[in-house]
Amino acid sequence: MEFIAEYGMFLAKVLTFTVAVVVVIVAAVGSAGKSKKEQKGSISITHLNKELDEIADEIKGVVEDEERLKREKKANKKAKKQERKEKKKDKTESDKKRCYVFDFNGDARASQVENMRKEITAVLSIIRPEQDEVILRLESPGGMVHAYGLAASQLARIRSLNIPLTICVDKVAASGGYMMACLGSKIIAAPFAYIGSIGVLMQLPNFNRLLKEKNVDFEMITAGEYKRTLTMFGENTDKGREKVAEEIQGTHDLFKGFVKENRPILEIDEVATGEVWLGTEALEKKLIDEIKTSDECIVDACKEADVYLIAYEKKSNIADRISKAMESAVDNSLLKWLHKSPRDHIS
């Protein structure tokens, strides 16, 4: 038992040292990155119809007869030329429907909202509300309330103009992720995507007793009765715990109200329990509208519209990339631990 205890202490020291080193590296790299002038980004646009056609042509070039392929290409070229001529003659004819696609892969701080807000601003400057639509491919297990509140507010800009907004979820839209998803005029999800988790969570360790055992005093001076309710190192009180519980309940009530306002067909008290459902179950609960993957959604859209993938790409140096990679790894590890579910594994 003594060996196990010593080994446990050794592992704890190694873990503490590793975390300390990572924190120092992140701070140093981040500081180096900030000392340089911030690089401006740019919007990249990918015509997905063209991309799909090119893939199809590559496959046809291998599996189909060469002569038949030549005839087909010639016929397609002639048809496109005729289509361009007709459009020039009839200038009053409305353009083909356009569909704009965004991607949002959320971390704990919803940091991608900085890119998404620029993408949305760019598209809203040219979109035709009565004709075009938007698709968001969303993946997020949630995170900070204020961060996901801002992300949801960006999507509300689209809905306020009565522009159709389809939200596609292939893996997860939970907690703050569902706060964003509920703004969709249509929500589709893959059969085994995680949907829901309409709840609020706060948890932290408290080392006060450990500090007392080691004869370490912790001093904290505040002004304002509830300036600091729960701490990691001070002695927490029942009054502080009650205040935090009250704040969390208030946030949950606001969350429920927001979801209900944007998706009124929900029985909100039934689904706002913090539970997570798989796609097929979420359909029964009316959390989503259809079972389908984002790939199917994009292919279907390409049949009737010109589909464009919009992405804001910010130039970054090596220091920025290392810093973001480390921060993302820590965020994702914490989120996986916080949202761990018995359904995460099958055997």
From TrEMBL:
Main localisation: membrane
Compositional bias per record (Basic residues), positions renumbered to this chain: 71-82
Peptidase S49 N-terminal proteobacteria domain boundaries: 2-155
Segments traversing the membrane: 12-32
Keywords assigned by UniProt, alphabetized: Cell membrane, Hydrolase, Membrane, Protease, Serine protease, Transmembrane, Transmembrane helix
Pfam families on file: Peptidase_S49 (PF01343), Peptidase_S49_N (PF08496)
Similarity comment: Belongs to the peptidase S49 family.
PANTHER family: PEPTIDASE S49, PROTEASE SOHB-RELATED
Name recorded for this polypeptide: Protease SohB
Organism classification: Bacteria, Pseudomonadati, Pseudomonadota, Gammaproteobacteria, SAR86 cluster
